[in-house]
Amino acid sequence: MVIFSIIKVGVRSMGAVCTIAHVPCRAKGTSVAAKAPPEEESKKKDDHPYTFDLAVIGGGSGGLACAKEAAKLGAKVCVFDFVSPTPLKTTWGIGGTCLNVGCIPKKLMHTASIYGELIDDAAYYGWDTLEKNEHSWMSMVGNVQGHIKKQNWKIRVDLRDKDVTYYNEMGSFVDQHTIKGVNKRGKEQIVTANKVVMAMGGRPNYPDIPGASDYAITSDDIFSLKYHPGKTLCIGASYISLECAGFLHGLGIDTTVMVRSIVLRGFDQDCAGKIKEYMEACGVKFIKPAVPTKIECIKEAEKGEAPELRVTFNQDGEEKTETYNTVLFAIGRKPLTEKVNPDAIGLKYEPNGKVPVNEMEQTNVENVYALGDIIKAPELTPLAIQSGRLLAKRLFGESKLLTDYRNVPTTVFTPIEYGTCGLSEEEAIAQYGQDNIEVYHTKHTPTEHVVREPSERDGYNYAKLICLKTENERVIGLHYLGPNAGEVTGGFALGLIMGATKSDFDRLVGIHPTSSEVFTTLKVTKSSGDSIEDEDC
Asked: pTM for the complete prediction?
């Protein structure tokens, strides 16, 4: 049997996509529906008159995971994915924010900045001949984008192999079972589906001030920027702003962060404050409290060269100006809910674009589901992937397993990395009361730092456990500042999920000499007021 599918294959350059439509591909074995076990057949296409069992709007991590899992279970699936260009005309391929303009390029550029630090430290380990030459922005961007393009291609091949029909089109509702797709040329088509999953993700916000969208960029642009950023202003105190400021500074770029109030709102403020102090000690400048009011272009960007911009801002009631080459806004993101014509199906959603769902990711429209960054949940790729897979298994398999949105670990890749799982200290106090929690904490010095000369980077590595006294000191929050924060935090997160107590951490034998072992030897409580300076080996 021959199955016809839409394959958008790519070489994407400056937003162009080479499209091959309706390419016939030989199915492996029998038809899609025949792949389902007999007990699942009642859930497949024979029970409804629609073209597809499932339509997914959004080709990011969560949507793709849901689509591929559903196809694996025998469902006939299509995916709509379309990227509207930024004001700078930046666009990208399938894979969503994480792959193209988020986690992956961010981690790679963070790694580039870490290599700069390692070169500085290498002489203390006998590498006297290493020299730190000027960093090549274009070389780094080219290699990062090369990796991303490979992954874009792999995703398209994977969808084809799994018999998922891919439409490189903006999908929107006509009614609850009908989706209109519009491609970049304005050509429309209509498809129908029994169930629909919304997984469109979000895009960065621009403030409503003169020149913002005309001259500034966002995280949608920075990772493919076609010129060296030059002197850069990152506006916002979000993790995206601090991560970008951190790797830019690490690459030798003059970097400033403009903050309206506090940094890393929603994260543990004890750790957030230490991150800001560390970045300042390393040379990142902060303007606080301040808000921009206008951006003007003094000199247009030329080929290979950044523009010159004048930023007017208000700091403590005083109007000030400063000149930069690049202004990056990282002041929050908004779900793309309104782009899919939600009113056509009576979908309930909040003014900020978030879509309320029940524990099964179901919206108020019976056959429409939502997941990822458009719902009230941590905006994390692995969480979206897991929720997408579990949703598909419930819809087309026999599973009843729900996504657990509690105790989800995450890492902020600032110059000093921050790993966290569970409640912040502020959240723990608000939820349980100050008298019912105990905080164990300490500073620590990574072994790899002891050979080098003392520097401004020392004294900030930190670890703490937040424990609930009324439940045998069950650990309800874990926080870590130091190298390899993702690796450290990801392992310990299992303990929090399993309900580990402080005594369980004490019984654990750590691996020596590593930073992670600090959690097995915590003795000092905040309430004691004792010193938390780390001890010698």
From this structure: 0.90
